[in-house]
Amino acid sequence: MTAATPAPRRRGRRPAGEDTRGAIVAAAREQFAARGYEAVTLRAIARAAGVDPRLVHHYFDGKEEVFVEAVGFPVRPKTVVEGVLGSGPDGVGERLARAFFAAWDGPSQRERVVALLSAVLASPEAAAMLREFVTREILLRVAGELGGDRPELRAAMCGAQMIGVAMVRYVVRIEPVASADVEELVRLLAPTLQRYLTADLTGELAGGPAGGDRA
Amino acid sequence: MTAATPAPRRRGRRPAGEDTRGAIVAAAREQFAARGYEAVTLRAIARAAGVDPRLVHHYFDGKEEVFVEAVGFPVRPKTVVEGVLGSGPDGVGERLARAFFAAWDGPSQRERVVALLSAVLASPEAAAMLREFVTREILLRVAGELGGDRPELRAAMCGAQMIGVAMVRYVVRIEPVASADVEELVRLLAPTLQRYLTADLTGELAGGPAGGDRA
Q1: CA–CA dist B111, B134 (Å, integer)
Q2: B57-80 tens-digit pLDDT
Q3: How far apart are CA B27 and CA B38, in angstroms?
């Protein structure tokens, strides 16, 4: 268990290159499925793959990159977060809605997305894993960078809205959402996501017809 | 197959009362699971139960009542629709959010709700059945009564938002939504549902930063 020396290659010698990379991805897939996204470390993946942790760093730019490849997630979180944040809070809801459909709705992605959602529907562990990943690496980063209070609540509400749309559009296929134009859905979702990300929640929660008292 | 005569009791004689009622419910459960909510008729349920269709009408006030009992749905749709519609469009989003949590969040309902959602997560057919029921008997009735254009789209968007919240709060349990106060969630959801139900979608879709052209 010394930190910098290569872990013992219990599974036999392995030639360098694609085979090692493939072994890392396969080990990561098992680790994430068994333990979720947050609990798994690059070191644990290296140990499970029987490779030196430095090799994981050599092939992948961080845990989120291993995850993207291991589960076939359709986009790189860094790219999405940068694009969604853009130049600031104005229009961030629309950019998030657009990024969501760009990731899930393209002709080449749909197959991967249905496979991902099927795994999620078949297993609460898979659902938790994917949600941890999306929340931590995309939504929480976006909400955090915008600087509002309660970024976790904002991220979770955006996640809830988008999970629901994904279920209705891709899994259960309820019309007219299932075959609606992406532009139309973007315009429906954009103000909702914009509000969850940037509205003054304190003010909103204190005022309005809902009042301040419990029923 | 003559309409008004009792169907043959192929499964043997059955005493009147709870046993017949139970047979109807059991047959309905099988029918809905196999064929979804919309495709099943009261006549088909009667046939599957081996009872006269008039007995189904005797015990249940319509297909939605049979469904409520067959799947353990936590509320009667008619009661919900009347309460949500209230005196008109003002505050309908808040009343829908409140009805949603009243149905799902009570101490006695949670067990049933988790059972329902587990069935949905385990089977796309169960998901479709439940979604058909909620959309047709609750959301579409609310959206239709409000008189706006495109009630199906409005109902589906409300459904998408609430399914997502149910997933995040009850199934995957992402904080802070999982343990948030119901009143707080009502105030977050109310403006979203209000907009989906009553906003001028034509105007919204034509204007705004999203523009009118496809990218």
Answers
A1: 19
A2: 999 999 999 999 998 888 889 999
A3: 16
Across the A/B interface, how many CB contacts are shorter than 8 Å? 144
* Residue at A192: amino acid letter: T
Do A99 and A80 touch, CB atoms closer than 8 A?
yes
Nearest CA distance, B178 vs chain A (angstrom): 9
User: Is there a contact between A169 and B164 (Cβ–Cβ < 8 Å)?
Assistant: no
The DSSP line for A21-61 is HHHHHHHHHHHHHHHTTTT--HHHHHHHHTS-HHHHHHH-S
* Residues B203, B171 contacting (CB under 8 angstroms): no
Whether B163 sits inside 8 A of A168 (CB atoms) is yes
pTM for the whole structure = 0.76
From the candidates A149, A153, A162, A163, which should be mutated to test the interface with B, based on the most B CB atoms within 10 A? A163
Q: Name residues whose C-beta falls within 8 Å of residue A34's C-beta, 6 or more positions apart in sequence.
A: A125
- Provide the pLDDT for residue B3: 45
The nearest alpha carbon in chain B to A212 belongs to B183
| A13 close to B (CB below 8 A) | no
